[in-house]
Amino acid sequence: MAKPVKINVASFFSGCGGLDLGFKKAGYNIVLASDFWEASAETYKLNNPETEFILEDIRKINKNMLSSALKRKGIKKIHVLLGGPPCQCFTRLNNNNLRKDDERNQLFKHYIRMVNILKPDFVVMENVADLLVRKDEKGRYFKDLICKEFEKLDYQVKYKVFETEKFGVPQKRRRVIFLATRRKDIELSFPKPSNKIATVGSFLKKLKGKKNLENHEITKNEPHVLERIKHVPPGGYYEHLPEHLKTKKFRNGKWVIVKRYGSYYRRLRNDQPSVTITNNYIIHPDEDRYLTNREKAVLHTFPIDYKFVGSRESVSQQIANAVPPKFAEKIAKHLLNYF
Fold first, then answer.
1. CA atoms within 13 A on the CB side of 305
2. Cα 244 from Cα 259, distance rounded (Å)
3. How far lies 287's CA from each of 13, 241, 313, in Å?
4. How far apart are CA 88 and CA 127, in angstroms?
5. Which 8-state DSSP code applies to residue 59?
6. What is the spatial distance between Cα 105 and Cα 87, in angstroms, rounded to a whole number?
7. Which region among 86-100, 193-207, 209-223, 235-249 has the lowest average model confidence (pLDDT)?
8. 141 φ, ψ (degrees, to nearest 5)
9. How do strand 8-12 and strand 174-181 relate by DSSP bridges?
10. Taking the alpha carbons of 323, 324, 325, 326 in that order, is the dihedral positive or negative?
11. What does each C-alpha distance from 272 to 38, 196, 298, 308 come to in angstroms?
């Protein structure tokens, strides 16, 4: 009986490895990865020592660099290309996303340049759902520009917005997946959501009784911060604080309460998915403290033993930037149907 052919994967904007981990768990062979942020690169390499890693800005990566990297691994064919170009310029929280000098909103072109060089059978590209409503300075939708770039290379492409809590991730995280292929004999589709919603409590309990966990340091809060935390109910946030604990500013001759966005002083609920994991502080559902990075990682569906390198702030950002591995695994297993 012939051995099954290994499905070789290359990834860009790999970060700390969330997207790649999902494909790895589904049985894919991750042969090449790349990112230019050194902290996340160190995390990636520590957890994936078998993968060839290029620490470089994607704008500087060329065909010779890719050929040399693949030659060192003895790889002649890339079947799947993965990546999530930076999303900060597309999210609704960034009011400068259409600035002409913000080159991040053009990095998808360099990602597709990697597609043109490596010519994979399939491409998976992830980004925030807000990308679908963003336009460039000429009024063109970025989603249309992305699709046209794929079509220029003779790839058919589809995209879909996903709610990750319906795909095994205890987190309300809206993301768009672009799926493209060179193959003409198939019709692209996406995995279907589950009727079961993943919740915070079922994941955080995995940490109970575990000792000497890395990245599990508790943030020590000032008394005034702790006082606020204690008054936030499960599922509540800043707006649920007593009036005397809210921030006030003197405006137009009087003191007024300052409004805050919904994730500010947000406390989770065990029976609900988490809010989107970002670099912001999030309050533990049962304890009067903020989540540790290890708890954030668990809610992001990273394994308990996944190692993160860098400062506490850096690790928090690495987790926030990552694609939840469990969600990535769902995409990966669905893609296996085409092989």
1. 2
2. 14
3. 35, 17, 21
4. 9
5. G
6. 8
7. 86-100
8. -70, 135
9. unpaired
10. negative
11. 35, 11, 15, 26
- Please tell me the pTM assigned to this model: 0.91
In angstroms, the CA 41 to CA 55 distance is 7
State phi, psi for 26 to the nearest 5 degrees: -85, 0
Q: Quick count: other Cβ atoms within 10 Å of Cβ 254?
A: 8
φ/ψ of 165, rounded to 5, equals -65, -15
Q: Output the six-digit token pair for 289.
A: 């403290």
Helix then strand then coil, in percent of the chain rounded to 5, is 35, 15, 45
CA atoms within 13 A on the CB side of 258: 9
| 15, two tokens | 């970060």
Going by C-beta distance under 8 Å and a sequence separation of 6 or more, which residues neighbour residue 290?
218, 219, 221, 229, 281, 282, 283, 284
Cβ neighbourhood burial of 235 (10 Å; 0-12, 13-18, 19+)? middle
With beta carbons less than 8 A apart as the criterion, state whether 330 and 167 touch.
yes
What are the tens digits of pLDDT across the range 180-220?
999 999 999 999 999 999 999 999 999 998 989 999 999 99
Given its phi and psi angles, is residue 29 left (phi above 0), alpha (psi -120 to 50 degrees) or beta? beta
